Predict the structure.
Amino acid sequence: METYLEAEGLTKYFDGVAAVEDVSFVIRRKEIFGLLGPNGAGKTTTIRMLSTVLAPDVGDVCVGGHSVIREGDEVRKRIGICPQELALYPELSAVDNLVFFGRMAGLSGREARARARTVLASVGLESRGNEVVKKYSGGMQRRVNIGIALMNRPELLFLDEPTVGIDPQSRNHIFETVLSLRAEGTTVLYTTHYMEEADRLCDRIGVMDRGRIVAVDTPTELKRQVGDPDQTTLEEVFLHLTGRSLRD
Amino acid sequence: MITFFRQAFILAAKDTRIFWRDRFGLALAFLFPLLFAFAFSHALKDGGAPDATPRLTVVAQEKHGVLREISAGLAASGWAVDERTRQEALDAVENGKIEGFLLFPEGFGTSVATGGEARIHVVVSGNHPGAAAVLQGAARAIGSRVETLALAARAVGALEPARPPDAEAMLEALRLPPLTSLEMTRTGQRRHNPANFTLPGYLTMFVFFAAALGAGAIVRERQNRTLERLMSTGVRASSILVGKFLSGASRGVAQLTVLWTVGVLGLSMDLGASPGAVVVVSLLFVLVSAAFGVMLAAMVDNLRGAATIGVFTSLTLAPLGGCWWPLFIAPEWLQVMARLTPHGWANDAFNRLMLFGASASDVAPAMLALVMFAFVFGAIALLRFRFSPPI
């Protein structure tokens, strides 16, 4: 499969301490790539560098053939970000949120409204799009959060823990949305703390610990490193790779 | 450039939409200042005795055309001018016959007519602090008019050093309006409207307050990574900053529109001889406040910090800057302190324009000071603003 994103030697220091160090991996076009790691492993910092929000101190990332350092604008046209925080405006309706972010991304008012209707349908909120977001359940708010990232029809979608604290129905709907996006040709980088989620969704998984990538492979091959893939869970692999000591 | 402004305006429009849905924000911006202005205007309405024609005792220690013009101007403005010698005036104050007087020292007229520095002395009885306000106000109003003449004299002096320092000749030669156009706020038959001072005071206080508390909304957007998200879609940092500034400014303009309209129609406020200057000063103060809001958001890390500093600065700068009482009745040190605050410059300009009939040129220094405040706050915001929460 064709490589869509290639990270090469990514390193980022905060106050002299390396939050991410020499991280290299590739994401292939139309795959769902899982990025797993304990708290403080450097996942979010890595995503921020991949998505042009944070400049790496060392290394570079190529997205769709464009460097995040030298061609940031070209990269930004191709990506959508769904941060783990609810990065939206609770006082506005879902439609207003989607239209606002769409217009800021360059769509005209008419285009943004039309796209908002499509996106609302894809995240299962078409019937309640005009209600203010603060009246939504946590799961509905998460779906709006994802919907905003879809407004500019991204080729690469970053989903940073999109299912935190929501009910199984909403989680399942998000899974279906992600799978349908892949079917439509979208490449997805997905981070989560839920191992069964990664096992179910991801084509390949990268495991991070202490700012470094410690393993990259398919879920089955990762399990094989620990034991029988049919008997081993991804959580066992995760603990094997990152240890059992508690993290801050 | 089109994209830059388009993004800034879309962002400002979104913020404005959110503001109009925020009941507490609306109450703080519109209801509270109106309540305060109505309450205090009503409370102060019947203050002071309805005296006859106001008397102003003047001591002129030289005979000069400038002083004759000033004297004529005061008389034409409805003041009964009582000219005395210095000793007579001091005795009258000592005996309680008058509360104070204005003293034009020797060389005053000559200094004005040659473009030099000139001072008016205000002498007040310690038993009548209220007289200080009246006399200082009169002195300021006279000073404002005389400054124009001194400035012109300096210009003429540079061009024609031989021209004699004669005030009437100067006024005639320069075609300046005569000093008889001097307008004063009179007590007596026409009662002073307290709204002319209370509403501008509460307007400046609450325009600034709303902008300072608006910093919290920016900090919240930074904390939940909305700003970061915007930047990842290709929005320029400068568009976000300008958009935030515009949203604060549009909120302030809405406040001005409502408060001035209610003030004029509901409180019979008089915007003075230069209503255009009142509007310009108001708009400049809105720009200062909007820039302060963005600067505050740039300086703090979290919502609590934004709220604490926003409330603290607003409630500290309001009394220091003459929002709660007219600066001209405040002690000298407080008047000096007020110059360190945008509120002080704005309120001084409002008082001059609405209480003492000053013209736009008289408040030009205040306008310049407000521009400087806006520039400094904006520059700090630009240098310190962060789009991501601290690590």
About this structure: The CA atoms of residues 90 and 135 of chain A lie 8 Å apart. The mean pLDDT of chain A is 93. Residues 168-183 of chain A form the longest helix (16 residues).
